[in-house]
Amino acid sequence: MRIAIFDVEKPDIVFHLAAQRLPWLAEIQIRETVSTSILGTQNIIRLSQMCGVQQCIFSSTGKAARYFTTEVYAASKKISEWQFAQAAQKGDVTYGMVRFTHMLENSSVCQQIDNKIQQGKIVNVHAPHRYVTAQNVSEASHLLLNALVLCQPGKLKFLTVRNLDWPVETLEVALYKIAQSGKDIPIYFQGLIPGYEEPCFLGQFDWDSPTEINFLTNALEPHFIDSSGELFVAEVSPFCSHTLTKHLAGLQILLADSDLPEAQIKRSLGNAVKEIGNSIFSQALTHTLLKILKWGANPKHFEVEEISIKEYRDVLELILQELYGRIDQEVLMRSQLTPNEVDDLIEILSLLPSVQQEVAYLRAVSRIFREFNLGQNPVEPFPDNIDLSNVSGVSIA
Predict the structure, then answer these.
(1) Whole-number pLDDT of residue 157
(2) Alpha-carbon torsion 188, 189, 194, 195, what sign?
(3) Which of 54, 102, 273, 383 allows an S-S link to 107, with CB 3.0 to 4.6 Å?
């Protein structure tokens, strides 16, 4: 079925910008959000292919860089990205994508603060020390246009702004806007609400190159900096297309049932992201997964931020399941972990009841290290002469 605007306009280029833009509202209007993002994307792809569109560019979000998420807004965007990546591998349309962060002139945060100030009402922010990255509309429009130039047939490349400058505290934004208004308006800390509760997983970022960390990509997405030095160009991580197709069909059936509780749609969405995410980890290099585990389960981070490792249970389960039985001497060398770091990981991960088998595997590997008298050099990387082919009590692939 064709949409009239495609028949009338016969576009050569399509920019797909339609989506629920408010994470908190996505948690309330679950059916509408998932339908708009996923079925809407499916329709855009189908119509682009049917109507001879040359290029189709998708507007995504930095929240989709997460390896795993249960938040409806971010999860539905991740599914949409995978839909575009799947479509890019077939057909005659060339697909591209951008990932945006908060828009200074058009962000929901700034609009909410402006509206409250204009109405003379209390300005509410989540909490102190909550930071956001930002870009302006000019940067956003340039990203979309550059995506037309840099996209390639057969694969999905996406663009982000390379230099997002320092993150800005939302409290600072609110205080600045109140000061500019000249009004005497109080601020209320409302706490985190659904859609904004997931803490940042530090294993998302590539700490091998800390000066080039980009909050809108993750460590498993191949990337480079364009010739201008202004754009970060990356690719969506390889995933199982069959798994995506299966979950898209399942979600479509659920969305068609108007009597189905929306909570069930959210659970199915989360299951889809988890299973497809697992297919990404299964294709990742083992030493990279071990580095991600090291970065993301750093005990010092939990101590400083005063958070529990249980906050990251889902993503850590996925990583540990894929590491199980895959660690060998080359992996250890390339991951550059020290004996002390492995022991620190074991200690913090042992707090998760759901990964005890994987923790036992790491303990067995660590025991081999100690048998080689590595305790005398606990801060040096592991050498390359350790035989891990037969760790006692644990199978090594």
Answers:
(1) 94
(2) positive
(3) 102
Measure Cα distances from 165 to 116, 135, 322, 358 in Å: 27, 9, 35, 39
Vertex 304: Cα angle to 298 and 306 (nearest 5): 100
Burial profile 134-166: b = 16 or more Cβ within 10 angstroms, e = fewer: bbeeebbebbbebbeeebeeeebbbbbbbebee
Of 365, 63, 48, the closest CA to residue 216 belongs to: 63
Residue 162 near residue 118, CB atoms below 8 Å: no
Work out the number of other CB atoms within 10 angstroms of the CB of residue 210.
8
Alpha carbons 26 and 175: distance in angstroms, whole number: 27
Residues near 375 by beta carbon (within 8 Å), at least 6 away in sequence: 339
Helix (H) or strand (E) holding 6: helix 4-9
Tens digit of each residue's pLDDT (9 = 90 or more) over 304-342: 888 899 999 999 999 999 999 998 878 888 888 888 888
| Spatial distance between the Cα atoms of 63 and 77, rounded to a whole number of angstroms | 8
Q: How far is CA 238 from CA 70, 83, 245, 285, in A?
A: 21, 12, 15, 12
pLDDT band of 381, cuts 50, 70, 90: low
Q: Which two tokens stand for residue 298?
A: 């750093």
CA dist 322 and 365 (Å) reads 15
Task: Return all residues near 40 (Cβ < 8 A) that are at least 6 apart.
Answer: 18, 19
Rounded to whole angstroms, the Cα distance separating 152 from 157 reads 7
Q: Where are the beta strands (DSSP E) in the chain?
A: 13-16, 55-61, 94-100, 102-103, 123-125, 131-132, 134-135, 157-161, 168-169, 187-189, 223-225, 231-235
pTM of the model: 0.90
Tokens representing 187 are: 């601020």
